[in-house]
């Protein structure tokens, strides 16, 4: 009898062990499945490839619901899982997505994708922005880049003055970068061609090439708007940007760029030197608060006191306002102008009138 009882106790213990092992195995399987599922969902909520900036064309047809949109995004490789994207949008109560053609990237977050589909335009949160003000020389632009990125100013200048690189860019931007920028008298071929603006960047360390391409593309877009006017005026892009750079450098807070443009055009019509101080400073290669008489005699192609007409090329980066003023000058008979101590410009038709303005506003 005792043997039977002991046998039963042994059987019970064995059963308990087996049940315990099975329960443990089940728990482990559940834990692994849960962990794997958690990791999968977490990864599906992250960008597919945070380092990728390659644009992928995505077409969202008219009348598309979130189920179809999710499937399209998964098929294009923009998201990892259509179901998770669908549930994510419903959880955030997002809707009213717009049909259209989009250029999306695998580095976009789900929120950025949703925002793009809601607004009808590609939306991304930049890692940082960089502002390049109007009126900067190429060397000053290099300083801005050094301040905002890991690139050194000298590395930037070495790249943008490399002849092979400039020639490569000329093939990529044939309407913008013409043979004019290779004139032997030009200090820097790309001077004045990098459009001044605030630029968003979507990676921490964009290459110098990416920065240059971004700025050249902006300038190319701006200038292409005025192609008909340029053709009507028989003016080259190089002449436009050179002229606009003079206006940009002469500008003050209250400057009437269109009227200053008329002064320059009027002088050019009678072969009168432009005599603008910023070209002298550019010729000297240094900044001065005051240009001296001896500076005006510097022998340099950029010196518009010694040479008639426009300088060989731009002396700074001009903004859209100066570009438009160069193309649409006021109609005047002015040949002279000066800015008083408050920055207000005073124009004159004759030299005697100009002298009177000097006496009245500066002395």
UniProtKB/TrEMBL annotation:
Protein's name according to its UniProt entry: Endolytic murein transglycosylase
Predominant localisation class: membrane
Record-annotated site: Important for catalytic activity: 250
Keywords recorded for this protein, A-Z: Cell membrane, Cell wall biogenesis/degradation, Lyase, Membrane, Transmembrane, Transmembrane helix
EC numbers, comma separated: 4.2.2.29
Membrane topology reported for the UniProt record: Single-pass membrane protein
InterPro entries assigned to the protein according to its UniProt record, in alphabetical order: MLTG-like
Family: Belongs to the transglycosylase MltG family.
Function: Functions as a peptidoglycan terminase that cleaves nascent peptidoglycan strands endolytically to terminate their elongation.
Gene: mltG
EC supergroup of this enzyme: lyase
Localization, UniProt: Cell membrane
Membrane-spanning parts: 21-41
Catalytic activity of the protein: a peptidoglycan chain = a peptidoglycan chain with N-acetyl-1,6-anhydromuramyl-[peptide] at the reducing end + a peptidoglycan chain with N-acetylglucosamine at the non-reducing end
HAMAP family: MltG
Record organism: Solibacillus faecavium
């Amino acid at each position: 009898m005792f043997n039977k009882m002991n046998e039963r106790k042994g059987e019970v213990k064995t059963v308990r062990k087996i049940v315990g092992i099975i329960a443990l195995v089940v728990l482990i399987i559940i834990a692994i499945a849960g962990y794997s599922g958690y990791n999968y969902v977490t990864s599906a909520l992250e960008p597919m490839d945070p380092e990728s900036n390659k644009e992928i064309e995505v077409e969202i047809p008219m009348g598309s619901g979130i189920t179809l949109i999710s499937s399209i995004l998964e098929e294009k490789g923009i998201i990892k899982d259509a179901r998770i994207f669908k549930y994510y949008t419903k959880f955030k109560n997002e809707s009213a997505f717009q049909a259209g053609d989009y250029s999306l990237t695998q580095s976009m977050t789900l929120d950025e994708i949703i925002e793009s589909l809601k607004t009808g335009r590609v939306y991304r949160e930049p890692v940082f922005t960089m502002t390049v003000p109007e009126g900067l020389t190429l060397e000053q632009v290099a300083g801005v880049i050094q301040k905002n990125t890991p690139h050194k100013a000298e590395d930037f200048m070495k790249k943008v003055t490399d002849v092979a690189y400039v020639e490569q860019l000329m093939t990529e931007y044939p309407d913008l970068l013409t043979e004019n920028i290779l004139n032997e008298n030009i200090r820097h071929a790309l001077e004045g061609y990098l459009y001044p603006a605030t630029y968003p960047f979507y990676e921490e360390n964009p290459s110098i090439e990416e920065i240059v391409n971004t700025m050249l593309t902006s300038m190319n877009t701006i200038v292409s708007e005025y192609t008909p006017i340029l053709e009507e005026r028989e003016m080259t892009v190089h002449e436009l940007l050179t002229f606009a750079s003079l206006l940009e450098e002469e500008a003050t807070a209250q400057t009437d760029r269109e009227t200053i443009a008329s002064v320059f055009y009027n002088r050019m019509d009678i072969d009168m030197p432009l005599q603008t101080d910023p070209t002298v400073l550019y010729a000297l290669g240094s900044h001065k608060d005051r240009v001296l008489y001896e500076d005006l005699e510097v022998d340099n192609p950029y010196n518009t006191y010694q040479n008639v007409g426009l300088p060989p090329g731009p002396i700074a980066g001009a903004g859209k306002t100066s570009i438009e003023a160069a193309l649409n000058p006021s109609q005047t008979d002015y040949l002279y102008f000066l800015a008083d101590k408050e920055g207000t410009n005073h124009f004159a038709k004759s030299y005697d009138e100009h002298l009177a303005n000097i006496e009245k506003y500066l002395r």
